[in-house]
Write a structure and sequence with these properties.
The structure is a single chain. By secondary structure, the protein is an alpha/beta fold. It folds into two domains: 27-210, Type I PLP-dependent aspartate aminotransferase-like (Major domain) (Aspartate Aminotransferase, domain 2), CATH 3.40.640; 213-315, Aspartate Aminotransferase, domain 1 (Alpha-Beta Complex), CATH 3.90.1150.10. 36% of the residues lie in helices and 18% in strands. The protein contains eleven helices and twelve strands. It has helices spanning 27-40, 50-61, 76-85, 124-128, 142-145, 180-193, 199-210, 212-231, 256-262, 283-286, 304-315; strands spanning 43-47, 67-71, 92-96, 108-112, 133-137, 155-159, 173-177, 236-240, 247-252, 267-268, 278-281, 294-298. The strands form two sheets. It has a seven-stranded mixed β-sheet. The chain has a five-stranded mixed β-sheet with strand order 8-9-12-11-10. A hairpin with a 6-residue loop joins strand 8 (236-240) and strand 9 (247-252). Helix 1 (27-40) runs parallel beside helix 7 (199-210), helix 2 (50-61) crosses helix 3 and helix 9 (256-262) crosses helix 11 (304-315). The model has no long low-confidence stretch (mean pLDDT 97).
């Protein structure tokens, strides 16, 4: 896996070739984009982060006065982006229950499959029947378990920082487009505004895609076992798990901070999707939007019995 770190490429006979300046595109990034595009069934673009990719979709494809129907209970940063950052610029956003049909009159439908941290799945058929464009944040599902474009979505979003790279050592976002016109708009936006990822980061995307299925399938096996055992634990009030993937959340009756601080194998940290299991209370970040006792667990590749033993002893601290 080669990494082309050049920022400029010489012209050919006085004209720019396929690559000329790194802010537009670079060979290492294009290689990763092609591989991701093949997995998702569309044309992919990499960005410097998942939030940069989300911002690009909203600014490149919408105009002031247009509206977005946003799945409630999804990643809280997306809601803040739409409401607090882009709201003053004329974007209107409304929350809706993504397990049903989106509201009438919106220009863009923003789904999350599954939502983070509530783990609900969208009704993709209902969304695809709506006249507005459909974006699916498929960060948690990954192409291993979901192909949104084949199911009617127009764009797929990934915080590739998570499962696509998979080792908690890269920050990168991705958008995959069904329509060439959307791809062209986003490519131009990225070129002019500059949120392209580095060659080194793009190479880590290519690396991660090579082991994506193996990692996510193992994480799913572990998460299924842990979700079932948590449902039977007397100190756990509620477990949310869609049946696939490595992410789950659960509510404890006691102090969630005491639980997260008591783990020994599971790392008390934010983010998700890495080979090492992480867990944290989401109330510290999201406030009353989530239950006080909610813990989000990103399941890694460790031995599942060792993970359960760690959870059991930590739950005794609640």
């Amino acid at each position: 896996m080669s990494v082309d770190r050049r920022s400029v490429w010489p012209y050919r006979d006085g004209e720019p070739g396929e690559f000329s300046y790194v802010r537009e595109a670079h060979p290492t990034g294009v290689e990763a984009e092609q591989k991701l595009g093949e997995l998702e069934g569309g044309q992919a673009l990499l960005f410097s982060s998942g939030m940069a990719a989300a911002t690009a979709i909203l600014l490149a494809l919408l105009r002031p006065g247009q509206s977005v129907a946003l799945a409630e209970g999804g990643y809280y940063g997306t809601e803040i982006l739409m409401r607090d950052v882009l709201g003053p610029w004329g974007l209107t956003s409304v929350l809706f229950d993504q397990t049903g049909a989106p509201p009438d009159g919106v220009d863009l439908i923003w789904l999350e499959a599954p939502s983070n941290p509530f783990l609900t799945m969208p009704d993709l058929d209902a969304a695809a029947a709506h006249p507005g464009k459909v974006v699916v944040d498929s960060t948690v599902a990954t192409p291993v378990y979901l192909n949104p474009i084949a199911d009617g979505a127009d764009l797929v979003l990934h915080s590739a920082t998570k499962y696509l790279t998979g080792h908690s050592d890269a920050m990168v976002g991705a958008v995959v487009c069904k329509a060439e016109a959307d791809y062209d708009h986003l490519f131009h936006f990225r070129h002019i505004t500059g949120p392209i990822c580095s060659a080194e980061t793009a190479a880590l995307v290519t690396r991660g895609l090579k082991t994506l299925s193996v990692r996510v399938e193992r994480q799913t096996e572990n998460a299924r076992v842990l979700a079932e055992r948590l449902r039977g634990h007397p100190g756990v009030a509620n477990v949310r798990y869609p049946g696939f993937g490595g992410l789950l959340s659960f509510d404890v009756d006691g102090d969630p901070v005491a639980v997260e601080r008591a783990t020994r194998l599971i790392t008390n940290a934010t983010s998700l999707g890495g080979v090492t299991s992480t867990m944290e209370s989401r109330h510290r970040w999201e406030g009353d939007r989530v239950p006080v006792g909610l813990l989000r667990l990103s399941v890694g590749l460790e031995d599942v019995d060792e993970l359960w033993a760690d959870l059991e002893q930590a739950l005794s601290s609640a």
